[in-house]
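Subject: sequence -> structure tokens, single chain

Hey, anyone have a minute? Need the predicted structure for the following. Not urgent.
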Amino acid sequence: MKTEAIWQALIDRLDQMQETGQSADFWLRDDDAVEPTAALHRLLDLTERFSVPLTLAVIPAHTDERLERCLAGRRDVSVAVHGWSHENHALAGEKRQELGSHRPGGTVSDELRAGYARLEALFPAFFVPLLVPPWNRIDAEVISGLGAIGFGALSVFGPERSGKAATLLRPGLQIINTHVDVIDWRGTRGCRDHAQIVRDILARLEQVVNGGGSVGILTHHLVHDENVWAFLSKLFEVTVTHPASCWRKVSDLIGR
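Reply:
Had a minute. Here:
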């Protein structure tokens, strides 16, 4: 199916949802924010132009007041905790992970507590108690202590009610995942085929219609090529004004 047709398929599905009184919440999570860059300014300007709320997963150890000044005056921006330093502590041959069992649990918890406190102090107007684990990986033992630090929600990648994500559930901790990644990490490391991304959105919409939840879009502004920017612009154009879709701040989803 050509890209134009697949976009029309998304519009048609949203039209069907509207006709049956259904709707879907979308949210946007962008990872690895540290400092003002041309790419970050472009993302901020794009989301502001379309009035799309943006959640930035910020790396606490590497950010500072420059990012706070960059965000000052921006509307609908949230800052989440992206681990501590985004450093891999996994053994050779293992998948990369910062929040794993490779170090004493107290060390990991202390870093997360420091990251929480640092971002809350740096970004008081934007901070949300949401943990975004680097590489979307976190051990269950680490999760058990998140509530004591202050976290109310956790965001990884994949369906909330099936697979690995379901094992992360803890009393008092909400899972608010992303479900559609725009980057072809295992291939070109640029934008994935637009038609395939839209198919993923359509598949997630079916999960939302049948079981609730939201459609989480995952981006990484530092590696965006022009095809990513074009995709996001088209996605926002299609969804922002449609009655069956609503772009939410992540704080609207926490505690729902």
